[in-house]
Amino acid sequence: MALWMRWLSGLPLLWVQRIGWTLGWLTWWLSPRYRLQFKQHSQQAGYNEPQVRAAIGAAGCQALEAFRVWFGGDMPVQWQGKEHIETAFAAGKGILFLTPHLGCFEITAPTQALTFGPGHGPMTILYRPARQAWLKALLLNARDKPYLKAVPTNMEGVRQMLKALRRGEAVGLLPDQVPPKGMGIWSSMWGHPAYTMTLGARLAMQTGACIILAWGERLPNAKGYCIHVEPMQEVLAGDVDAVVLQINHAMEQLIRQCPEQYLWGYARFKQPRHEA
After folding, report:
1. Which structural domain, as residue segments, surrounds residue 109?
2. Quick one: pLDDT band at residue 2, thresholds 50, 70, 90?
3. Number of structural domains the chain divides into
4. Residue 241 sits in a domain of what CATH number?
5. What does the H/E/C string look like for 208-230?
């Protein structure tokens, strides 16, 4: 499996995306459960199937692009709103990057880290160790990029993120990822209850860090990616529940910028699992 991942990562981006697009459609046709979940989630957000049809193939692209990000060479990347990051760093309170499962989300953190790390220190991100020993070591090494620090999803990892923000550095989260039971609350997403992590809200409330919303748009014809960044417009206010809801609403608005590249098949509304 590891050799297959590395082989894929060495292919031209055009072929990675073509294979991924095919994989996305195969998954759609072969898995009734995935197909139903995809339809339910996109309909809850107010979209019909033709409006998000491109997201079927895009999901497969994202799956294989991750190998290219982890093991392959550089890919063309451009920025939109890059100045917001410089402004946020100048405030000196650190940056909390929030990125949904939109576009090529794997490319955002290493690109940000490589671009701003030399001047502002490493970026800290969370990772969940794989259960298989071979995959655990593989992914840990894959995420070991210049100026990118991966910490585990436990209290020690949270402490390291707090320390990074207090040093004025950047941290990154996927706030639409369902956390383990006890690490989130039920909050509204697309008007439906979704178990949502509280970590982003607590980090922002405890440190006063600037919140930057970011996502990596997949450009057509394998031209690379455009990383879109913008400050969170809504001023955080209220208790943890209120701030979590504000973050969910911000993710909704970000996804509406490009619903055809969102992972509608992701089990966003599932019951949280129990951590061992």
Report:
1. 76-258
2. low
3. 1
4. 3.40.1130.10
5. CCEEEEEEEEECHHHCCEEEEEE
Q: Is 26 exposed, middle or buried (0-12, 13-18, 19+ CB in 10 A)?
A: exposed
How much is the pTM?
Answer: 0.93
In a domain, 8, yes or no: no
From the number of C-beta atoms within 10 Å of its C-beta (0-12, 13-18, 19+), residue 141 rates as exposed
Q: Is the dihedral of CA 125, 81, 119, 114 positive or negative?
A: positive
Residues shown for the chain = 276
Q: Which helix (H) or strand (E) holds 199?
A: helix 199-207
Q: What is the residue-wise DSSP string for 139-183?
A: HHHHT--TTEEEEESSHHHHHHHHHHHHTT-EEEE-TTSPPPTTS
pLDDT at 242 exceeding the cut of 70: yes
